[in-house]
Amino acid sequence: MKPHNIRSSVLWVLILFTTPSLSDPNQTQSHDSILAAAKNHLVEALGQQNGKASIEITSLDHRLRLIQCAEPLETFLPSGSKTLGKTTVGIRCHAPKPWTLYVTANIAVQGPVVIAVRDLSRGAAIGPTDIKLVERDTSNLLRGHFDTLNQVVGRTLKRSLRREQVITPGLLMVWKTIKRGQDLTILAGSGGVEVRMKGKAMRSGNPGELIPIQNLSSKKRLDARVVSAGIVRVD
């Protein structure tokens, strides 16, 4: 064998035995690949919210050493995990040696939130100058929030409100779509024929609820189902 052929053979042998193998137990899974897998899972889970979301993955302990996976890492959300606020992502490897790791993360989603611009007393009716819209992290607003001013203007406070406080549904009196004594349009009919009549609400109600009403023409009282603001339907 010629000298250059011998050198070539030796070189190929060295490459063969020194190139890392995916199933080599001496190779470890990089932390970057684990964290990237966790982040990608959360990005997909967020879907349409992703554009306004900020995902922060907690770094792994530098002493952690896991055997490199011979196949793509499997990711999952453990039972009880969520896609807002503090959460956990599971990372699983099946071969060559199975292991499972849990990575913590925090997901912040920015969005419009209605807050008070001044202190307001219990029983006060909220006016347009009492509130404003600001951008806030909505992931930790577990009691809910409003994202438009129209949802709040005219509502009555059940409790006092502090300046800069986020207005939540629980702070407001229940807002009925139809109020007692309100003039209504009554819908009735079947088979493609619909009749409209004028009526009056005898009780407040929200869509889907049955409330007593009065037909203003016949003065007859009957039950009707609330459809939307000012409209009910006789079943």
Overview of this protein structure:
This protein is of the alpha+beta class and 235 residues long. The protein has two helices and ten strands; from the N terminus they run ααββββββββββ. The protein has helices spanning 3-18, 31-46; strands at 53-57, 74-76, 85-93, 99-116, 131-137, 183-188, 195-201, 210-215, 221-228, 231-233. The strands form two sheets. Strands 1, 2, 3, 4 and 5 form a five-stranded antiparallel β-sheet that branches. A hairpin with an 8-residue loop joins β2 (74-76) and β3 (85-93). The protein is elongated.
Please give a handful of descriptors for the protein shown.
235 residues; alpha+beta; 5-stranded antiparallel sheet; 5-stranded mixed barrel; 2 helices; 10 strands; 31% strand; elongated
Overall mean confidence score, pLDDT: 85
Please tell me what the overall shape is: elongated
* Biggest β-sheet description: 5 strands, antiparallel
The helix fraction, in percent, is 10-25%
How many runs of DSSP E, i.e. beta strands? Answer: 10
Are there runs of 5+ residues with pLDDT below 50, and where?
A: 1-23
Number of helical regions? 2
Class derived from helix and strand content: alpha+beta
Sheet-strand content, in percent, reads 25-35%
Radius of gyration from the alpha-carbon trace, in angstroms: 32 Å
- SSE string, helix = H, strand = E? HHEEEEEEEEEE
Oligomer: single chain
How far from one another are the termini?
A: 98 Å
